[in-house]
Amino acid sequence: xxxxxxxxxxxxxxxxxxxxxxxxxxxxxxxxxxxxxxxxxxxxxxxxxxxxxxxxxxxxxxxxxxxxxxxxxxxxxxxxxxxxxxxxxxxxxxxxxxxxxxxxxxxxxxxxxxxxxxxxxxxxxxxxxxxxxxxxxxxxxxxxxxxxxxxxxxxxxxxxxxxxxxxxxxxxxxxxxxxxxxxxxxxxxxxxxxxxxxxxxxxxxxxxxxxxxxxxxxxxxxxxxxxxxxxxxxxxxxxxxxxxxxxxxxxxxxxxxxxxxxxxxxxxxxxxxxxxxxxxxxxxxxxxxxx
Length: 291
What we know:
Shape: globular
Order of helices and strands: HHEHHEEHEEEEEEHHHHH
Oligomer: single chain
Distance between the termini: 68 Å
Strand content: 5-15%
């Protein structure tokens, strides 16, 4: 008689591992979240994706790491993996559970405030709705490209993304409508892929280089990439701060190259930032430093 009570409590987040096992049984690929709603950081072997797999969380392989590394790409429905020794420490630290919507054939429209909710009620078909900390998750049947900031306060989480598990909510899931797909298409037409030529360039520099070796610059870029990739929230602010830090240390002497900038932009876009946002953050950082 006690089991239903335990399950009900766990699905509200009191016991992340048991919650994860219940969700995995339903077919939702799950992963632990640390405090701040961010994924667990890469293990030492995979830090900065030196393992060669899942670069910037864009693809799900070929890394064979047994730990819950690489954010959404670590999500699984396998109870053997979820209860393995490699995941034990992560569950002990876990503050919540997330799932990979695209891996379950779903799309989450993340509405972050009252204005976004009002817009959705006027423009989107009704579907399963789950209250979130500041807004609502509207969940549809079907998958699409994940895109942040398609409208003010509106993110789309589906393929290659994760959403926090907040409960089953209310209502019946509707098929993914074209109006939601169109939001990402509009964003994509304005945002070039990271492989395209950058419209910003490294500062010309010209000052005397204070660095003792190229390794100093490499460590700085790698650290900025790591901070961006592992930021639990406020990704816009983190990207700007890391751009500012890199430019402050390396922007005046001419050592910073377009290849370094591309690495930073790639890390930011791996967290959902658009190229336009990256360019604006870069320009603002240059202006703040008077360069």
